[in-house]
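Trying the structure run again after the queue cleared.
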Amino acid sequence: MPDAPKPGGLLDSLRAQSSAVRAQGEAAKRPVEEALAEIDRRLWRAFRWLDEAIGHLEVIQPAVTHRFVIPNIVTVERPQFERGFASYRRKALAGQDLLEHVEVFYRLTGGQAVLLKVHPGSATGVEERLRVSSMPYQYQTEQDEKRVVRFGVFQITPTITANIRFEPDYHHQTIEVILRNVDRFESVALDFAPDKLDEPALEDLVKFMLGEPNGFLRRAPLAGFRARRDAANGNPVAVRAG
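Done. Tokens:
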């Protein structure tokens, strides 16, 4: 029968050291875990708030006082909010179930279809610009009596698909807010500190969506400023495509 470990022997000493190291590790992890959980809580509150707001806008269907322009192709004045929804996705990170992103999609409509005739050689360029805008269109050619193509004809549906995406960077403890087709046919990304993404910021965001005067774009710096600052300081920088 093997001897029992001696009290105060090597095994007891190893146990004590192991417990101390484990306790230090748990203590070091706790603030990080709490910070990640706080970002997740703020994003979840933002999702619930926006989900309700979008539901009300879908009922009210207000006019949006933005002007969307593709130069020399189409202009959409004061489109109407038609419908929208909010969604989210979760992922496992650092032993927690955290939000990977929150996203709002919505659609604006701008009245009757627009008919645009262009020189056939210009059709490819027009088509590329329409694709980037995500505005629906149909294309066909118009021929003369000799079956020579005289025009490229676009029928453009003045419908604007917009979305706003909240992407947390749990490592840097920031939330990137990416707006696409919100006030014009382009994208802009802002870097929010988690505590700055509060209800007044969300109110400003919805006002911005509707074209009301507000300061949403001044609430946070443009995304990329931190990356450029880190690069200037000699820190490694990860660049995300898309």
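Confidence is low (pLDDT under 50) at residues 227-242. Worth checking whether this holds up in the mutant runs.
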